[in-house]
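User: quick one, fold this
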Amino acid sequence: MESLINVLNLKYLKVEYINNQNVVILVDNEGFEILKGYGNTITDAMNDLHQNLI
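Assistant:
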């Protein structure tokens, strides 16, 4: 399934692929990493990040 959002255009999220997992990282204005979410897909990693926020 193709994503409707280009995650590269999201200002405060950084997407990486580390140790065979997608990682979505919430960053602040200065680029410091605040929180991470992990998953088999970018969507799973974003959902994990969101779950960690609530």
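User: anything notable?
Assistant: The CA atoms of residues 4 and 43 lie 11 Å apart.
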